[in-house]
Amino acid sequence: MGSFRQLLLVAFLLIAALPGATALRAVVVLGRLVAQSSEEAERALALNGATHALAARTAGMERTARQSLVLSDALLRRRFDEEWRSARGALEQMTEAGLGEPDFARWRKQAEDIAELLHGPAETALERERLAAAEFRVLDDINAELAAHVQALVGSRDRALREQLYAERTRLMQQVWASLVLAALLAIAFGIWLARPFKRLERAVVQLGEERLDEAIDIRGPADVRRVSQQLEWLRLRLTELDADKARFLRHVSHELKTPLAALREGAALLEDGVAGQLTGDQAEVVRILRQNTLSLQAQIEALLQFNAAAFEARQLRRRPTDLLAMLQAQVDAQRLQWQARRLEVFVEGPPVVLAVDPDKLGAAIGNLLSNAIRFSPPGGTIRLNLTEQPDRVLIDVRDQGPGVAEADRTRVFEPFYRGERQPRDAARGTGIGLSIVQEYIAAHGGTVRLVTDGEAGHFRMELPHDQ
């Protein structure tokens, strides 16, 4: 298969060939009709000229015939013969112009009868002149009939030409519309066919952006599209290697740090227990600070490992049809001791909705939001989990009555290890990765999670596409 540019040129030529061929046929048909119209006009002029010439020759024949009978003049008789020959020439011209031969038989027979009247004795000349005059009246009637036939023939040819012109125009209009419709269909078909590889490229870029690195990129199409596909596949493999290197580095660093941290923690504990001797007040305070910071550092390392593991697992979903309402209730039941200890009321509301999701990861995301809501809610407060089904998506809202997120923190609330300024005083300090893990798991499902700033209390909304 050629490049995209070559395929686009071929598509353009094919689409342009349809109206081009129709236009070429229109030119050919128009030229043929113009030539035919010119020929018919020449024939009509020839027929009308021959008709007038025949009438003039007939008048000349009558004049010379009657004069030759009255005067018995041989010269006038020869002029009659000349007029007769001219009349026959007009008849032949009319025949060549398309008038049928049977229309001339009566004329020839009548002219021959008149010519026979010119022969005879002198004493019957006047009687023959009278008979010739009567015969010429009949010949005039025949000329009138021939003229009417000529006009009818010219009219029928003109009507036939007009009908042919109308039929050709109708046929050309049909062909023009057919070619335009076919060209439009070809343009749409070529557009869809040529755009399909780019849609696949777009999906591949989104796939890399979402760090779904386990799916190979192999896009069929024009040569230049295949080259881009190969480069994206190389990038995917490279990102996979870098991701694996990052995971190995984090595991290695965490392992290397946890060992000396454990020694520091144990040493601080021994000092605090007085194993190495009784400590003064200042020394005990230093040991306490040392032990507290080693525990904090260890918690940070474990949180880093947890976030890295969550980011990796988010790309390996195991979907199955899951009742989301039952999942919400299960998460509430799992943390019953925590919210009951703070005398909270937790409500789950919404219709039963079944969606193809990874129940473990989506449950973990819901559990993190619920845990945050419990942590920030005031004693005796209320937490609501709402499930809403829409035509194209499913919404899961988690609302509490806590202080909410400060305006300065709203743009960074989903950043790893970021903790906002509004922290509860009566709760342990968090690691700042809970919302980041929620975002990883929801994005892996093709959805989004956001902070809804419709009030001072905390309100997070997860949106999952309905067509999963």
In summary, what is this structure?
With 468 residues, the protein is α+β, with helices and mostly antiparallel strands. Helices cover 69% and strands 8% of the residues.
Q: Can you walk through the features of this model?
A:
- The chain has 468 residues and is of the alpha+beta class.
- Helix 3 (102-117) packs antiparallel against helix 4 (125-209), helix 6 runs parallel beside helix 10 and helix 7 crosses helix 9 (359-376).
- It is rod-shaped, with a radius of gyration of 54 Å.
- It has 10 helices and 7 strands.
- The strands form 2 sheets. Strands 2-4-5-7-6 form a 5-stranded mixed beta sheet. It has a two-stranded antiparallel ribbon with strand order 1-3.
- It folds into 3 domains: 4-185, Up-down Bundle (Four Helix Bundle (Hemerythrin (Met), subunit A)), CATH 1.20.120; 224-313, Helix Hairpins (Orthogonal Bundle); 320-465, Histidine kinase-like ATPase, C-terminal domain (Heat Shock Protein 90, 2-Layer Sandwich), CATH 3.30.565.
How are the elements arranged and paired?
Elements: H1 4-71, H2 74-96, H3 102-117, H4 125-209, H5 223-272, H6 281-313, E1 320-323, H7 324-334, H8 336-341, E2 345-349, E3 354-357, H9 359-376, E4 382-389, E5 393-399, H10 434-444, E6 448-451, E7 459-465
Parallel strand pairs: 2-4
Antiparallel strand pairs: 1-3, 4-5, 5-7, 6-7
